[in-house]
């Protein structure tokens, strides 16, 4: 058959074929280039079942776009070997089976990209967070209408379009940070990231300091970090504590140094007075009642200084369209990087400005009314006082 585009949307479950019947139909379209399934998958086969679907070949397939549950996607992608240049777009919009099946979905994705890494190595990874609504209600309890999601886009060295475009959520399950952190970790554990040179983070602040080291150890060749929107304070603290543990050692063992090849950091549309959140005592997630008043740019300055002491000074730091950029902190940073670039937007020239003397960091609103009693900490000050 000469069909090149097949798009099925919102097929009622009672009308869906069995997987074997669907695959038999699909393999007749040998010229198929674009396959789109939006909640229109064949009936599910339980994950781990011995009733595996047979493999079919679609040699001309260029783009596969799937929207549904994790298991529905697994039942398709494990049966269709993909060519190296295929663009994979997946939107997991219902997460009820994530804990049970996401590992298998991530494994299938990872297997594909490992098989093509010589021909189409990944060069850039983009991680994007998104929120809808306030996290807490007027009664200071978790807001059931709060939704969040994240998106992973992976690019090849010469590709303008992503080889992988994966969106997780939003639904009721992804309202909880630990679900998103687990999904992100599963994907990064399976993808071949050793050759990735650029990591872009946009509004990704739900990952904690405890979770970042495991993610970062996969990026052995990373040279560039590009940060926009909500600053990832968990990332920065993971990097700072790691660099400080090396800058204060008397030996030269750098095998455990995170991001040893990092050269350039770009900040744009970031509030440099933004504070962070302490890690919850009950799990690897942020505590929204325990605030760290260490400002983002000041923590970054401390990290850059410790990298320099490890003889791993950055080549450049670029700051553009950011708010609350302190000139005093920039002066401290100048001695830690070879090139420092910034514009004059949101610049505070001296520490005598009102916002500087207040001492508290800035936090985005998560509460629909007055928050409960919040506990303030100053981790950076405490860390630096240990050196005195």
Automatic annotation (TrEMBL):
Query: Superkingdom of the source?
Result: Eukaryota
Q: What is this protein called?
A: Uncharacterized protein
The record lists the organism as Sphagnurus paluster
């Amino acid at each position: 058959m000469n069909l090149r585009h097949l798009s099925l949307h919102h097929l009622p479950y009672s009308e869906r074929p069995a997987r074997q019947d669907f695959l038999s139909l699909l393999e007749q379209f040998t010229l198929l280039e674009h396959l789109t399934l939006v909640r229109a998958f064949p009936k599910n086969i339980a994950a781990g079942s011995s009733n595996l679907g047979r493999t079919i070949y679609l040699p001309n397939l260029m783009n596969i776009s799937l929207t549904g549950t994790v298991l529905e996607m697994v039942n398709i992608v494990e049966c269709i070997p993909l060519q190296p240049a295929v663009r994979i777009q997946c939107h997991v919009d219902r997460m009820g089976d994530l804990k049970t099946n996401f590992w298998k979905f991530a494994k299938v994705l990872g297997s594909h990209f490992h098989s093509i890494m010589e021909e189409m190595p990944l060069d850039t990874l983009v991680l994007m967070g998104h929120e809808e609504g306030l996290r807490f209600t007027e009664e200071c309890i978790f807001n059931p209408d709060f939704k969040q999601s994240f998106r992973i886009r992976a690019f090849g060295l010469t590709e303008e379009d992503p080889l992988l475009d994966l969106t997780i959520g939003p639904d009721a399950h992804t309202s909880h940070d630990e679900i998103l952190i687990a999904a992100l970790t599963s994907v990064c554990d399976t993808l071949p990231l050793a050759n990735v040179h650029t990591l872009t983070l946009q509004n990704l602040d739900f990952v904690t300091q405890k979770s970042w080291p495991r993610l970062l150890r996969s990026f052995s060749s990373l040279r560039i970090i590009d940060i926009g929107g909500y600053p990832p304070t968990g990332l920065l603290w993971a990097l700072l504590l790691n660099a400080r543990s090396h800058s204060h050692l008397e030996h030269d063992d750098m095998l455990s140094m995170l991001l040893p090849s990092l050269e350039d950091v770009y900040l744009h549309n970031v509030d440099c007075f933004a504070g962070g959140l302490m890690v919850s005592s009950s799990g690897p997630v942020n505590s929204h009642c325990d605030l760290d008043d260490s400002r983002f740019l000041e923590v970054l300055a401390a990290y850059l200084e410790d990298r320099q002491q490890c003889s791993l000074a950055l080549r450049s730091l670029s700051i553009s369209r950011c708010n609350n950029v302190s000139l005093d902190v920039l002066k401290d940073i100048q001695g830690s990087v070879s090139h420092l670039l910034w514009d004059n937007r949101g610049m505070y020239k001296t520490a005598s400005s009102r916002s500087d003397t207040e001492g508290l960091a800035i936090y985005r609103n998560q509460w629909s009314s007055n928050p409960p009693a919040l506990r303030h900490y100053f981790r950076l000050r405490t860390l630096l006082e240990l050196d005195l």
